[in-house]
Amino acid sequence: MLSYPVKLELDTNNTYLVTFPDIPEAVSVGDDEGEALLNALDALESAIEIYFDDKREVPPPSKPKKGQPVVTLPALVVSKVLLANEMIRQGVRKSELARRLDVHMPQVDRLLDPRHSSRLDAIEAAFNKLGKRLEVSIS
């Protein structure tokens, strides 16, 4: 699970501004705290796309302070972040992963698209080709 702490503040327009200390590219607003936090997930996913496009590791979330709100990424997006980070660490490009998986490039592009509903078995296969195993748990 990746839960990113957020800074939530009322701005001069009486809207709530949400920023992420760990992901400065993610910024969102809302008319109230609930809307701002809901919009923050979309902003976080958009920022993750930027990291993927720039081939930069997505930083892990820092520990939230007591009472600090967090935005939690959906499990499928978490698996894609972990996959992209592992590819970067190993120096494996998308074309190389496509070759290892014996698939076309658009399929790998979809695997690394946080907004695409990829199949979990496809992500699991990608991890296997990187010498890793995807584990799922419930807490």
TrEMBL record:
Ranges for domain HicB-like antitoxin of toxin-antitoxin system come to 4-63
Q: Which organism is it from?
A: Caballeronia mineralivorans PML1(12)
Looking at the record's lineage, which domain of life comes first?
Bacteria
Protein's recorded name: Transcriptional regulator
